[in-house]
Amino acid sequence: MANLFDEVQVGDLRLKHRIVMSPLTRSRAGENLAPREMNVEYYRQRASAALIITEATHVLPQGIGYPFTPGIGTEEQIAGWKKVVDAVHARGGRIFLQLWHVGRISHRVMQENNELPVSASAIKPAGELYTGKEMTEFETPRSLELDEIAGIVEYFRLGAENAKKAGFDGVEIHGANGYLLDQFLEDSTNKRTDEYGGAIENRARLLLEVVDAAINVWGANRVGVRLSPAGSFSDMSDSNPSATFAYAAEKLGKRGIAYLHVIEPEPKNAVKYLVNGEQISAVKHLKSIFNGTVIAAQGYDFESGNAVIESGDADLVAYGKLFIANPDLPERFKKNAPLNPPVESAFYGGSEHGYTDYPTLDKATAA
Length: 367
Description:
Elements: E1 8-10, E2 13-15, E3 19-21, H1 37-45, E4 51-53, E5 57-58, H2 75-90, E6 95-100, E7 118-119, E8 128-130, E9 135-137, E10 142-143, H3 149-165, E11 170-174, H4 180-185, H5 200-203, H6 205-218, E12 223-227, H7 241-255, E13 259-263, H8 267-270, E14 274-275, E15 278-279, H9 282-290, E16 294-297, H10 302-310, E17 316-319, H11 321-325, H12 329-335, H13 361-366
Parallel strand pairs: 3-4, 3-17, 4-6, 5-6, 6-11, 7-10, 11-12, 12-13, 13-16, 16-17
Antiparallel strand pairs: 1-2, 8-9, 14-15
């Protein structure tokens, strides 16, 4: 029976344990949205993760929705990420770059030339976003024209190519949390009547085209995909999430990608994930269909992480807030040591405080 400390095969990589660092937006990129020395140190500190999945990284300026989030489209950005990768590799770590386009979760003040953000359909999300100066209500996005979609796929391909230039071990396609690829996939945000709308096969088309573009660069065994079935973040919903995400999982499984990264629905949404009228764990359901390596995420601790692996419903577990506050999380788990509490006020933006100044066990002991 496997547990968090067992080795595991992910694509063609042999990982030393099963404790993954989740992608975590921290809004601390430097000038021109390139990683800087503070970011290098942050990832270096967490290199003991079995696999680091970086913060979401936009593949083109149109994909920006939050202040100070990094890109992978310029030479300066590639060079900044290369320093991060080199620091992680120097400590024996493995790291994938998460490729991202926010779609409608943006605002014209964040866009070049003050243009509207884009989406599958012109449907305004509920809520507000932070533009770097103030909270601003979302606006109605522009529906992407059919002849623009190939360009989106090409930018993801270029992002995958630039990730390879920076020395990453692979890439993860961000198809979760209500961003552009998820906006195409789920029927609450996709009302298109062309070949990218309507039936599940059409709504999943953009996600699969992006994945195929990344596979063409990296090979399937170095590409992962993140999905959020029955998630409501970014004002998302789907009329039949188990069918929608099962289709995506099946098609991704047939491509032989390295892993499927599943954000388990929160309890308030889990009741919507039904198969034949019965509620079922989304991770368990999608793993049975994907038939490959699955990373589970959603507020796991040590005990629940071990439990989901021992059950066979997942192969690895991704940790977010716990890795923010505990750069040496695997060691703390192994020693059953106390965990640092996260400083939530410092999650987004700012300086080293709440970013690179959390103590490791050796420093805590010395103190």
